[in-house]
Amino acid sequence: MSENCNHNCNSCSANCTDRKENKTDFSEKLHDKSHVKKVIGIVSGKGGVGKSMVTSMLAVTVNKMGYRTAVLDADITGPSIPKAFGLSEKASSNEFGILPVKSSTGIEIMSVNLLLKDDSDPVIWRGPIIAGAVKQFWTDVIWDNIDFMFIDMPPGTGDVPLTVFQSLPVDGIIVVTSPQELVSMIVSKAVKMAEKMNIPIIGLVENMSYFKCPDNGKDYKIFGESHIEEIAEKHNLNVLAKIPIDPNISAASDMGAIETFNGDWFDTLAKTLEKL
Ligand code: ADP
User: Relative to the CA of 248, which ligand 1 atom is closest?
Assistant: First the structure.
């Protein structure tokens, strides 16, 4: 096994003894003028657990640490990244390709909403077209010397996660979950999908874990007891962060001010990524 093995033979050219060849290679070529060092997917078993919030806040944390950071919004039918960053400008292009929009702190962002004339227009496309758009965000967009690219995936185990796992050199995924019992069963599906596809799982993040009452300082488990440790143990994974329900988080993303929000929940996770 190579010294720097990331267990993803699709993103590595080392011809080692442990190499697992894909009979069919679906990998897509990054745009000639792009440079992207690490690609991290943010996935969840179901919608509404805070996957886009985790993607945005993690990107903000890593960017603050001085890394060149990008967000590829692969949630084509439910894109929420541009709103969280308060982007109103549309993506432009030059003779070589499409240029991502830069957030106020310099994070490069590409999302279908940055291409639509009116961002409330729905995307009514069939699966293969949606998956094709995600591939184009990789092949046709000029990403400028990116250290960490975060991919906000649509929930579940459908067409787009499959496309991203097969076509992009994903270095690892972070699985976002919330404490409800049902979610723990669904999150296992997402974890097992990544395992089957040989995508390294960096760990789990539990969002909406608890609510700290500002009046008495006590923690309340609004969605019930957490099952995250059980899931983590079952799949031999690390719990990377537990994030409380905080009305300031939803207010910041609603107001497009996610970059100004201060929270240190992602610092440890960002340091884990630094070691990749
Ligand atoms: P997903 O991407 O999983 O569908 P989102 O990140 O869009 O979920 O989050 C759904 C909603 O919940 C958003 O309005 C978001 O601002 C809010 N939200 C997410 N996490 C929290 C949290 N920890 N505290 C308060 N609101 C949150």
Answer: 25
